[in-house]
Amino acid sequence: MVLSTYAKSRNVKQGTGHRAGFTALTSVLQYCYEMGVKYVTVYAFSIDNFKRQPDEVHSLMDLMKEKIDELLMKESIVNKYGVKINFWGNLSLLSEPVRLAAEKAMASTARNTGPVFSVCVAYTSTNEIVHAIEESFVEKRDRIQERYCNSYADESIWADSMDGAISVTDLEQHFYTADCPDPDIVMRTSGETRLSNFLLWQTTYSHLQNPVPLWPEFSFRHLVWAVLEYQRVYPYLEHRRSLSKKKH
């Protein structure tokens, strides 16, 4: 992980890199909001990260709870800009204190009309897709049961009704990201070129960037360069998006 790499490169104790990463995140969020960026999404914790050593996972959960609480403080960036917070992922996998803190943050900011800050935690894109399929199926099943008065007597009707019932639109309506636009820019710091199971469905036409600095070293000039790079390729990306829409 980038933050672990940062701690090793600086010869500091475990956890220091994660704290430095949260500090960098606060700065980058402020830069984004001052530049007029409406939506910012971060990949904070993958479902795969639960496979790490238990003490490391426990430490990360404690740090996450601490930082979520800080976001709700009166002087925080959330209150300064009226930020709405989302937590996307299988939140049931989180420790109870972290899950409750996340739910409180979402409830407390639900009516905010400023920028939207989304945190992918206990998340993988494949898990999100499976979740959307399951939710779409349940929705379709319930509609059919209601239509036929909960009767399974005519199995042929059931089969005909369910054949091809789940569409792309159905899936996208049940993604965690349903209320937000697809990202324009995806940045993977430290020069990594893997998406690591992050928003695979939503990033088809996103501009993927791989800045060399480790995340805690990511600064305002790196962000400005990322935006300039996106502006350079924007006409091409829009052309590809328009072609895709015509096909559908």
From TrEMBL:
Q: Does the keyword Lipid biosynthesis apply?
A: no
Q: Which UniProt keywords apply?
A: Transferase
Mind telling me which PROSITE patterns this protein's record contains?
Answer: UPP_SYNTHASE
Q: Does the keyword Transferase apply?
A: yes
InterPro entries assigned = UPP_synth-like, UPP_synth-like_CS, UPP_synth-like_sf
**Listed GO molecular functions?**
ditrans,polycis-polyprenyl diphosphate synthase [(2E,6E)-farnesyl diphosphate specific] activity
Q: Which Pfam families match?
A: Prenyltransf (PF01255)
Give GO terms for biological process: polyprenol biosynthetic process
EC class, as a word, reads: transferase
UniProt-listed Enzyme Commission number(s):
2.5.1.-
GO CC list: endoplasmic reticulum
Q: Which family does it belong to?
A: Belongs to the UPP synthase family.
Query: NCBIfam families this protein is in?
Result: uppS (TIGR00055)
The protein in question is named: Alkyl transferase
Q: Which organism is it from?
A: Phoenix dactylifera
